[in-house]
Design brief:
The protein is of the alpha/beta class. The chain has 2 domains: 19-171, Rossmann fold (3-Layer(aba) Sandwich); 173-334, glycerate kinase, domain 1, CATH 3.40.1480.10. Helix content is 37%, strand content 17%. β4, α9 and β5 (223-229) form a beta-alpha-beta unit. α9 packs parallel to α10. The chain is globular and about 65 Å long.
Length: 337
């Protein structure tokens, strides 16, 4: 909110890099050109950097197309980054190599399960343990359409070690889950951390959380089941939504008729997919309210149109930008008798 002395801010595209991403990255490269051994680069990194910090090794339009192909395929974030780090002049440790012989102090907010440094923003300052053969196998797995130039990039091996980088992770989904546990406890709930490594299709996660609530309904306990991580969405339609909205909508049928039960799922950055919502909410009345409006959750999910369906039943959650990005959190609540 406002300018910072000595700091230039660039707004760029996400999840697909755009011209602003390329311009911002070039400005960083210009700033760090011809550094000396006594120089130190303070590199602040968070989720979203794969799109925001980018200098393509192939035609930019093709990079954008490959990114869209991967997003539509249902590939998870590590698969996505295994491909795109090889198509970039600043990922897979290449930014740290650019800065050499200067030292790089990397401070990281992790948005990837288990905090793998090579995958957070595709590892601009981290060695890359993945291999060219793994990248090529993903091309075959998802039937990606690539140019010969892109295939050539994937065939090149990346840096397996770096000697000018020191890194510390200062935030991750684990901390997000701990904070949620504390907040739930302060509200009188008994928190149960199911996982901080949630990694499956969003709608299936919603069905699973609804099933957990149904199993514990009637116990008279005030429970909060927490699941942190990052689900995926397989695109089968042309609608509007995000993975947290799909998770909430996926829970609606399982929650139907349950009293004092709800599933909430939000992105920690305040943005869910290409929408202005942070996530979604469903409770025991959501299915009935959708049905009254002629909306069938299964059909809506097939169209990937969760945003408009949840908006029709006041099931969207809006927070605005939060200033951080450490994955998503889903909370399944039972208020007891």
């Amino acid at each position: 909110q406002g300018s910072l002395p000595g700091v230039t801010c660039y707004e760029a595209g996400h999840p697909v890099p755009d011209a602003a991403s390329f311009a911002a990255t070039q400005a960083v490269l210009d700033l760090t050109a011809a550094l000396q051994p006594e120089d130190t680069v303070l590199f602040l990194l968070s989720g979203g950097g794969s799109a925001l910090f980018e200098k393509p090794l192939i035609d930019p339009a093709e990079l954008q197309d490959i990114t869209r192909q991967l997003l539509a395929s249902g590939a998870d974030i590590t698969e996505l980054n295994t491909i795109r780090k090889r198509l970039s002049a600043v990922k897979a440790g290449r930014f740290a190599q650019w800065c050499a012989p200067a030292k790089v102090e990397a401070v990281v907010l992790s948005d990837i399960l288990s905090d793998p440094l090579d995958m957070i923003a595709s590892g601009p300052a981290a060695p890359d343990p993945t291999t060219a053969s793994q990248a090529q196998a993903l091309v075959a797995k998802y039937g990606l359409q690539l140019s010969s130039a892109a295939h050539a990039c994937l065939a090149r091996e990346t840096a397996k070690s770096l000697d000018n980088v020191r890194t510390q992770v200062i935030g991750s989904v684990r901390e997000l889950c701990r904070a949620a546990e504390t907040e739930c406890r302060s509200l009188g709930y008994e928190p149960v951390l199911l996982t901080d490594e949630l990694d499956c299709e969003a709608r299936e996660a919603g069905r699973f959380l609804a099933a957990i609530l149904r199993s514990h309904a009637g116990e008279g306990r005030k429970l909060a089941f927490l699941a942190g991580g990052e689900t995926v969405v397989r695109l089968t339609g042309q609608g509007l939504g995000g993975r947290n909205q799909e998770l909430a909508l996926g829970a609606a049928a399982g929650l139907a008729g349950l009293r004092r039960a709800a599933v909430i799922s939000v992105g920690s950055d305040g943005t869910d997919g290409p929408t202005d919502a942070a996530g979604g909410y469903a409770d025991g009345d959501t299915l009935e309210e959708l049905t009254a409006r002629g909306l069938v959750p299964h059909e809506v999910l097939t169209q990937n149109n969760a945003y408009y369906a949840l908006r029709a039943v006041d099931g969207l959650i809006f927070t605005g930008p939060t200033g951080t990005n450490v994955n998503d959190i889903a909370v399944a609540l039972l208020q007891g008798s």
